[in-house]
Amino acid sequence: METLRGIKVLDFTHLLAGPYCTMVLGDMGAEVVKVEPLKGDQLRGLGTVFLEEESACFLSVNRNKKSIALDLASEQGREIALKMLESSDILVENFRPGTMDKLGLNYTEACQRNPQIIYCSISAYGQEGPLRDKPAADTIIQGVSGIMSITGEPEAPPLRVGAPISDMFGACYALQGILSALYVRSQTGKGQKVEVALLDSLIAAQTPIAGMYFAQNQEPARLGNVSPAAAPAQTFKTRDDFINVSVGESSWPGFCRALDLKHLVEDQRFSSNTRRMENRDLLIPILETIFLTKTTHAWIEFLEEANVICGPINDYDELFKESQVFNNQMVVEMRHPKAGSLRMTGNPVKLSQTPWSLRLPPPLLGEHSSTVLQELGYSPKEIKSLLTRKVIK
Q: Which are the catalytic amino acids?
């Protein structure tokens, strides 16, 4: 049995945040119907990597879904969407605020057709407020959120985090809201609206740093790979690569012994984390010289034996050969009708009684249009007419 078996999701999402959210709902067993324009989700054509004309980005966030291609601007297309809504439990959309109003598919309209609907809107800045109508992308949100101001080396310009974190955090908070609303509905029988802004999601991701800012009203500095709370806790160059090290109060003596620097244990300049942070400029050059004498692998063996927290900096080739990653089922494989054998990341949430599952490969555009309409009660003749008039594809 799957966690969300029997739950139906009407998916009006595109690009990354919305599709990742609905993909996870599908992973958990929900039946997800992706409603696409006749030309398809624009993510189908984005990126630089394609597998048999299928965008790798699109494939990565759209498994466990069916696809219906629908002209929502037409009266018949809108009516089909409303009929699907009547039998759905969850609706997810990530258009710019106001778009669903123009389509006649806003929360008020949805509730008239289905009072129990859980209606989730994911937007860049929020459904209300002075920025609600502004377009955005991940880099823009990273900049506005302040996270770029604290990312990068001290003397270098602000730096974008390499992954699309505003989209991924936004998707995860949307999931939290949807599942919370689903639980409330199971208790009260009532649906509700869920709103998530990518901006808010990235602000929440900075909660500890914001807490320090509120406490002292001082701009946090860019520290590169250096921890703001401990020393030594940062990246060091080794003979062949790099290593990340995080030394706590209890592991400091063992760390010094592993580096053959026993005398530093008694050095009052470094006798506590506070003193080590105060004298970081004296300590780090000593350590940098020592770390250059051995390989990353050798240092990890030395430091782990001394119970010091440490690890390599993997590139993707190394990451996706890591045995722990496979143990955690974070690389999965399935067959796609066009792209063939398809590898993708797994689901990080493991439930002992109701595990997630791979059921459907990412859909072709409109692959399930006829099937979805048949389930709504449309006859083959009516479906053919809709195809001819380009209401569906």
A: 167
